[in-house]
């Protein structure tokens, strides 16, 4: 059970099993929607957080031996450091991480990490396909881990030391995975011939939050925190079989049970324990460094000037696709908030509202805190049964009605504009009123009443 304060931030997270609390967290937020502290009410351990003037999360301090004082300082460009004085890392052109106390890094002409050399001489080598997706990792012991992807860039196969893991997808989330001890097979003949005792089915809530693991040996419920990060798993009898806590880099610092029993970390990330990286749909994330191993495939459109960085505030933002932060501030030079989610608009007869920057979007007058507001909009839509990452199972009339209901409790004022042209559609309107204005604009567009 998660409780929220009036502005939408979580204040308490409580999990109970067999008539006792197994997890209790209390959250304290400041007026800028920044998480200032988290308290484990079962152990008394408190984590406090600090931010710079640009709302970047720059340190975490826990009164226990595991975390102590952990910095994620940023320079003027956004490059990440683990010390307050920002002298522990060396960055090169294009924000490529060249050296830390633990390793030296080399890159190819495309900006992909190709080699990591540790102080003892251990060397990791990385190879890529032409589209920039990682193809192979050669570990220091000379064993190889290889990867294959489908036409949409989704990973469908991982092979390591004679063992192949196959993945079947539902949109942008993994539906099934299973293992073969013969890595010479393909996905097609493996699914036809293998004994599928190893088959795992993953159940996701809307978006990228896993809720269950279904196997031939039993079914397991997955509990996630307010960010959608898995923190606990329970068997059918209510026994806790797995738990994990991440630090502010996404590293697993505390774990009970087998670490990869639940391989999902921050939303959209799947940990590959063989190589120490998280597969993040379009890129691979290195939790030890807090950076991606490849440049952002969409370049500066991802909103991160370093091209390798994760989100600026992992207490609030997510990057489930490895492309850009969710949720970003609704800046006036950006894409804004599409009052009807684009995928649903395109599939339910409103294609004029489904364009990235050529459709009317709502923008708040006050940008500060709009990332949290943006998240609240989509949470409200989800509560009405309008998912972010899955099809909407209803009619066009249902979509309009539920969208209107979702926005009724948001008093914030803003304006509706077409980002690509700057055309102003409406001023001084709430997001609900902005939705109405967008629908009017669409009706005029369809009737030929506006250019």
TrEMBL record:
<keyword id="KW-0677">Repeat</keyword>
<dbReference type="InterPro" id="IPR006530">
    <property type="entry name" value="YD"/>
</dbReference>
<dbReference type="Pfam" id="PF25023">
    <property type="entry name" value="TEN_YD-shell"/>
</dbReference>
<dbReference type="InterPro" id="IPR050708">
    <property type="entry name" value="T6SS_VgrG/RHS"/>
</dbReference>
<dbReference type="InterPro" id="IPR056823">
    <property type="entry name" value="TEN-like_YD-shell"/>
</dbReference>
<keyword id="KW-0378">Hydrolase</keyword>
<feature type="compositionally biased region" description="Basic residues">
    <location>
        <begin position="1"/>
        <end position="15"/>
    </location>
</feature>
<feature type="domain" description="Teneurin-like YD-shell">
    <location>
        <begin position="27"/>
        <end position="296"/>
    </location>
</feature>
<dbReference type="InterPro" id="IPR022385">
    <property type="entry name" value="Rhs_assc_core"/>
</dbReference>
<dbReference type="GO" id="GO:0016787">
    <property type="term" value="F:hydrolase activity"/>
</dbReference>
<feature type="region of interest" description="Disordered">
    <location>
        <begin position="1"/>
        <end position="22"/>
    </location>
</feature>
<protein>
    <submittedName>
        <fullName>Putative deoxyribonuclease RhsC</fullName>
        <ecNumber>3.1.-.-</ecNumber>
    </submittedName>
</protein>
